[in-house]
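Action item from last week, closing it out:
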Amino acid sequence: MHGYGYPPEQQPKRRPSSSSLVVLRVVFVALALLSCTFLTWAPMLRLAIVTRKQRDWWLFGLVLALNVGLVVYLGALPVEDDVMTDGQAIVMLSWMLVVFVGAVTYYLYTEIRHFAAHHPLPGGPQAVPYANPYSAGAPGASSFPSAGLASRQTAPAPPAPTGGYPPAPHRSPVPAQSTPAPPAPTTPSAAPQRIDQVRAELDELSDYLRKEGDSR
């Protein structure tokens, strides 16, 4: 007994093997054929039990009524006639053929579709569960609602104030300025030295001329 809440999930019915289904179809079709269509209601009964649809139950009753009607028709023929007339034979054969072909064709077609739709093969494709496109892990989900949230979550929080004073404003470091190199000492010009040298040479030359003049 199940209490409150959602009912437990029901396990899907196991699909019969393909070989057993084929054997059952061959048996029911052969039963209808070998009985001269008098047991054509048997495959329709199996189909109604398998599908559990009201339409199939109504068709089973129709086929059963046609089989009973054929038996009543044959029983109503005059006994003194040993051979059926052509008209009686045509009616009986047409009746049997229509009932057999219609019932067997509908039985095979409906049963095959029923097992293919409601009981797929174990190795067949499975239904993919619906995924919410707005869930966090859903493939193809839109990421724009979470973009702002992610940026807010990853933003660094300001440091908590210590000692009751507000934190000092953050200042970016100022790059150190390079001090200009001192100018190179200028060397004294060589012009004064040259003048002194020329003056000394002139003095020597004047002394020499004076000595030459004295000697004459």
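Closing note: The radius of gyration is 59 Å.
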